[in-house]
Amino acid sequence: MRRSxxxxxxxxxxxxxxxxxxxxxAPGGVVSRPPTAAAAASGAGEVMAVMRDxxxxxxSHGAPGFPDPIMDPRSNYPAFPDDAPRIPDGAxxxxxxxxxxxxxxxxxxxxxxxxxxxxxxxxxxxxxDHGVGDFPDPDAAGAFPMPRRILALGKGGLEPLxxxxxxxxxxxxxxxxxxxxxx
Length: 183
Fold this sequence. Notes:
The chain is mainly alpha-helical. 42% of the residues lie in helices and 9% in strands. It folds into two domains: 5-107, no CATH class; 114-177, no CATH class.
C-alpha cells in the first residue's frame, strides 16, 4: 500500500531517523485516522503552506531539486510527490524546526476521497465488463488486491487489457495491494 510521503518526510526531518511502523498503514506509530471533513478542509491550506516552507528549506540546505508539495489527487490532501528524493542529513537537521510547525493532522494517512474511490470502482467495473472478470474492486485504502494471475501478466500483458478503460484510468496510477489468499 502507498504510504503518505509527507509522513516519511516529517519523520526524517523531526527524528532524523525515519519512523518505525506500528502497522502497515501507520508508520511511526501514528494512528491512521482520517481527519474530520472540517479539519481536513481548514488544515490542508495550513499544511500546504508549511510543506512549501519545508521544500524551500530543504532546497536551500543541499537538495536544490527537492520538489514542491502537490495536492494528492487520491486524497485531496497535500503531499510530496512519490518520487521525492531522500533528504540529506544537513537539510534534515536544518529543517526540523520548520517540520515541527505542521499540525497533527499532517501526520495521519489520508484515505482516498469519495470521488477518487468512485473513479476506482468505475475503472474496476470497466475492466470486468471488458473481459477481465477477476479484476478486483479497490480496498478501503484505494489499492487493488490483484489476483496472482493478473500480476503474472506484467505491464506488457496488462496494457492491452486496460486500453478499453483508459479514459477511466486513475490519475496517479494504480496502487496494487498484495494478493489475497494466494489467488
